[in-house]
Amino acid sequence: MDSQQLFKERFTAHIKHVMRYAQYILNGHIAIALIFLVVAFAVIYQQFLLDLPEAFPVSLVMSILFSLVILYNPIQTFTKQADLVFLLPAIESLKGFFYRGLVYSFFFQSYLMIMILAALSPLYHARFTSGNYLFIIFLFLIFKLWHFLMRWASLRLRDQTFLFYTKMGLFIVQTFVWYSYFKNWTMMFIIGVIGLFLILSYLLHRGFNHSLALDQLITNDQHRLERFYRLASLFTDVRELSTRVKKRRLLSRMLTSRVMLKQSETYTYLYRLTFSRSEDYLGLSSRLVVIGGIALAAIDQPILSFGVGVLFIYLIGIQLLPLFSHHDTKLWLMLYPVNKQEKMRTFLQLLTALLSIVVLMFTSTLMFRLTVLDGLLFLVLASVFSYGFVWIYAKSKVSAVKGS
């Protein structure tokens, strides 16, 4: 079997598949929103550097961020479920196929490495007047390569508890190494590097003593695709997406306990239960609320705060729109003797309630960060925006879905 040709075919098919959904992600309003977020972050970051407190732990922050990026090593091998049957007998002759996947995975992560190194460069030069940042980049790449090889070896091991504690230990040691370097603790830095090298050498030896776990490679690739599908599902229908559901009994009971058992409340119960149990809606929207709250807490300019707050409300609303058609592919839903207008009304009411909660949370943050008057002004602005988003924009979108 030609491993080079197999990799070429899998790689080409993967790129075409990803690009088909990427064009929806980077199209339209979301591109404008992302540009606005980048500009807002740049303004906040510049202001922070100009007023950098003397007590701010630059060394510790950079050490932690560097270590997190270095230990983040997802590996894409382009394997499929059927390979357990068709490729397993020939796995020893496919080393070239996996090595090409490793090269692709390492260089694919370069965007994250470049972003972190570029973003932390101003912070480094704002605190350290002397020092060679190019040497830091060199060390970063060496450490990254070490951990990347260790990650490839760890995919052969099946003891998840051992791997978890190993990763935690490596993070602590790697953070200590960086912190020692930034503090100019030369002897501690050398000891930390030697200790890190010994640990990684042991893990490499232990990992490569086992045969390649093809089933784990397939599972990892599937999880990576699922995460991408969940992102793409915010902008278009993704047929390949398998939704993960968590029971969350307490939250589900809180949201559905007061729903009356009558025909007109059918979709009220269904949508509330779906929102509470599906990671696609509750998980993503919760993370956006946290990120938005942190951003608002870091900004001390009212106009910029208003813009960022409205932007996050928009992103959360966009993320919740697919909830309307979440169950449309289920045939048993057609048995519901419920008017379709009730379905749309129920969804828009739920969306209004959820965005109202977000507005109140952001308003509270601004009242503490700025002034009560600024918070009230944002409350009025965000309420008007949320109403228009739900009853004009979202209503037109779901009406189009209902009519198609």
TrEMBL record:
Coiled coil: none annotated. The lineage of its organism: Bacteria, Bacillati, Bacillota, Bacilli, Bacillales. Keywords: Membrane, Transmembrane, Transmembrane helix. The keyword Transferase does not apply. The chain crosses the membrane at residues 21-44, 56-75, 96-120, 132-150, 162-179, 185-204, 281-299, 305-325, 346-370, 376-394. InterPro entries: EcsB_ABC. It comes from Halolactibacillus miurensis. It comes from the Bacteria. GO terms for cellular component: membrane. It holds the Pfam family EcsB. This is ABC transporter permease.
